[in-house]
TrEMBL record:
Keyword tags: ATP-binding, Nucleotide-binding, Transport
Keyword Disulfide bond applies: no
Keyword Nucleotide-binding appears in the UniProt entry: yes
Name of the molecule in the record: ABC transporter ATP-binding protein
Residue ranges annotated for the ABC transporter domain, each copy included: 9-228
GO molecular function annotations of the record: ATP binding; ATP hydrolysis activity; transmembrane transporter activity
PANTHER family to which the protein is assigned, alphabetical: ABC TRANSPORTER RELATED, IMPORT ATP-BINDING PROTEIN
PROSITE patterns, alphabetized: ABC_TRANSPORTER_1 (PS00211), ABC_TRANSPORTER_2 (PS50893)
Species assigned in the record: Aeromicrobium flavum
GO cellular component terms, A-Z: plasma membrane
Length: 228
């Protein structure tokens, strides 16, 4: 059911418990979230409220105990471990706190490797880097890039296989205020231009103006702070 109207992400009543015995916690408590293609959603909330757990179930990294998670119409619980890994590579992009780039590879090679891992040998690394304003740094390794530039390359790498869903974890944690705005504006631009759904977890309330919707996680429950 890969029609144009299918949401990029549809989580219904997801509950996830972590830990054992007395330390068992309900990281997700009947969480529902629908994100359309091209939409940019921010998730805020205190430490330990369940934000990373939400990204983990949305990214097919863990299965909820109950409820369902669909990415572009595919119910993630129906996938075997191998199929889940393949699905993740082809359909979901991840952006981490400080880019998480491989030190030995040039910016262009980071993208080519991500393409090859997903069976995509025809990656036009230069043009994807160009779309995030980094074509002029294609031959640089991460050690010769600024924090903001590393984050841009990380975003380009996450987009290289044209995912339906981009999951972004604290992208501005290592950046100053000006670079933070630039990187989150870039995510907003990419959501629109590539028609990709973006879910970003952040503690940085300063950058929320770039998002279409802001949701707050409290004790495993998700509520709206601002709607589009
Ligand atoms: N592997 C684990 N085993 C047991 N409990 C865990 C595990 N991972 C997380 N938790 C607990 O689950 C709850 C939700 O954690 P989660 O990491 O999703 O929160 P978070 O909002 O992302 O926090 P932060 O902002 O600090 O990263 C917390 O109470 C945490 O202590």
């Amino acid at each position: 059911m890969n029609t144009e109207n299918t949401p990029a992400l549809e989580i219904v009543d997801a509950t996830l418990e972590l830990g054992d015995g007395d330390s068992r916690v309900r990281a997700l408590d009947a969480v529902s979230l629908t994100v359309r293609a091209g939409e940019f959603v921010a998730i805020v909330g205190p430490s330990g409220s369940g934000k990373s757990s939400l990204l983990a179930v949305a990214g097919a990294l863990s299965n909820p105990d109950s409820g369902s998670v669909r990415v572009h119409g595919t119910d993630l619980s129906t996938l075997s471990k191998g199929a889940s890994a393949k699905f993740r590579l082809e359909n979901i992009g991840f952006v981490f706190q400080s880019g998480n780039l491989l030190p030995a590879l040039t910016a262009a090679d980071q993208l080519r490797l991500a393409g090859r891992l997903a069976g995509n040998r025809k990656v036009d690394a230069e043009s994807v880097l160009d779309s995030v304003g980094m074509a002029h740094r294609a031959k640089n390794r991460p050690g010769h890039l600024s924090g903001g530039e590393r984050q841009r390359v990380g975003i380009a790498r996450a987009l290289v296989n044209a995912p339906s869903l981009l999951l972004v974890d604290e992208p501005t944690a290592a950046l100053d205020r000006a670079r933070s705005h630039e990187v989150v504006q870039l995510l907003a631009d990419q959501a629109r231009e590539q028609n990709v759904a973006v879910v970003m977890v952040t503690h940085d309330h300063d950058v929320l103006e770039h998002c279409d919707r802001v949701l707050e996680m409290v004790d495993g429950s998700l509520g709206a702070v601002r709607t589009a």
